[in-house]
Amino acid sequence: MIRNLFAAAIFAALAAGLLTAAIQHFRVTPLILHAETFEGEGGGHSHGEAAADHVDAAGTADHSHDAVALTAEDEAEEWAPADGFERTAYTTLATVLAAAGFALVIGAVSMFSGIPITFANGFLWGIAGFVAFSLAPAYGLAPELPGMPAADVLPRQIWWVGTALATGAAWLLLAKTRAGWAFAVAAALVVIPHIIGAPGAPDEPSAVPAHLATEFAAITLGTSLVFWLVLGTLFGKLNDVFARNRVAVPAGATA
Amino acid sequence: MNATTNVSTATQSLSISQRMIAGSLALLLGLTLLVGTGFAGDFRLHNGAHDTRHAMGFPCH
Question: What InterPro entries does the record point to (chain B) (predicted)?
Answer without folding.
Answer: CbtB_put
